[in-house]
Amino acid sequence: MSFALTGCGAAFQTALGWSSVESRTVQRRQDVAITTELEGAVVQRRGPDGVLSTLGRAPLADHVEYPVTETYEVPDPRWPFWVGVSVDLISYGTPVLASTASGESFGALFGAFLGVTLAADLIAYLVMGTDGERLTKAEPLNGSSAFVYSALGADGRAVGEQVVRVPKESKAHIISVASGSPLAPAASSELRILAVMEVSDAGGIETSLRKSITDQLRVTLAARGFRTVDRGAQEKALAEQIRELKKESYESCYDASCQIELGQALAATHIVRSQITRFGSACVLMAEMIDLRAEVTVGAASATGDCAPERFIELSERVGKEIAVK
Questions:
Q1: The pLDDT of residue 180
Q2: Handedness of CA 247, 253, 259, 262 (dihedral sign)
Q3: Which of 287, 284, 274, 286 is nearest to 307 (CA)?
Q4: CATH class of the structural domain 189-324
């Protein structure tokens, strides 16, 4: 009888458990503080996926993501509970109905048992079956994620590096391997970091076409072995620069001084500036590469053709290839 008073639904479900276990893989974020032996060095990061990214000049904070497996206990009252409730109803409900129909007094006793067992089931369900999910464990996938941070020397080569295993570690201090070797932005031609500025126009070319020409220049230079600043990162930095300077539009950043400041903010070593000029039915695409440290032009190229939109594919490729060998 004492077993029955617990409620068959609660008893059956307790035997199988009130909750199930679920595992989910999520991305968590962590900040990594990076310093170098000499402040101002360009820092690069190679993530677990092998992608190399230029972050900027030290000191800086990098924001990385790493996978975590989270384990939850999730309330899961299933069919055993409802089978048990049905057993309660049949076990006690049938005698109650029978005794009520025949006028026998002991039906009230069965009715009381039925009420108690159903109440026990209901209380157990409210306490155990409706509780929210609970995080029981969180473990980094594969133990940790390794991020390799390196500082570039004056010749553009990595002169020091440090591995940071996230989430256990959150700091990196990169020391030069060669004693006395200065840490500075890359300067060798094959390791230049280029910020390709949007093509300016003196010939009435549509904005969308200018952006496409700029992208074609960027792709051509990247294919020639240059490292180029991502377009999205460049546009974000430009928006911040315009906002800080309280200028009215992006049109105000086609002059050399503004573009040099933007390139420096992006930790680029060089910028590529270009312009389209129209002469009657002919268009000339001109470009120059500027060394941001010396603020001097170190390369220039031009290409001439008609002004049809499809012709600019060839013009931008010719200019990109020519300026890449300067």
A1: 42
A2: positive
A3: 284
A4: alpha beta
